[in-house]
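sorry to bug you again but im stuck and you know this stuff better than me. below you get a single protein, a line of residues and a line of whole numbers that encode the local backbone shape. mainly i need to know what kind of three dimensional shape the backbone takes. anything you notice is useful, everything is just below:

***
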Amino acid sequence: MVSLRGWASFPDDLPDFDPDSAPSTPQELFLDWLHEAGEHVLAPHAVTLSTVDAEGAPDARVVILKDVGRAGWAIATSSESPKGLQLSKTPQAALTFFWPGRGRQVRLRGPVTPAAPDVSAEDFLARPPASRVEAFIGRQSQVLDDPAQLSRAVRDAERWVAENPDVAPETWTRYLVAPVEVEFWQASHDRRHLRLRYRDTGEAWVRERLWP
């Protein structure tokens, strides 16, 4: 067995965080942390999306955050993808952001709702050409018996996108995660990590310090 204890967990210099001066909403603090992370780490908007399958087993993958606002955190995918099918059956999800170069993570969870078709279409048409081609290929996570099949599917999808530049797949869906809890975690070298949780009471956000 290989020991992993020799690897550093956090950088030498960690940012300051004063939970007592945190803003009243998690969206405000998240955007502050996101922009700060963007100055130090690659793809700060990459997030682990966790769902459950038909048997209740957890599933997770990394996706890209599309937007964040008062209503929640937005992601997008095909409704026919594994994550889309899981969300249709169990419309609950968790999002986990981890910025190791800053010793920070943000965790949130709550119900998920699909956006209106026109909003989802607008999201799709804003994607780069290669990403639109990928979406039209479909069959995400299905078994690929022959790589030549993928090559043919790519050519067909490229042709379709070129001939229909303003058309989005009906299955492309933008999803909004409206969290009931959002936790901000700041690492500390003395292991007395700072944890601040925002909890939605239905009327306002309540801020709570958590034990490390």
Q: What stands out?
A: The longest strand covers residues 104-114. Residues 140 and 158 are 17 Å apart (CA to CA). The beta strands are 46-52, 58-64, 67-69, 72-78, 92-99, 104-114, 172-177, 181-186, 194-200, 205-210.
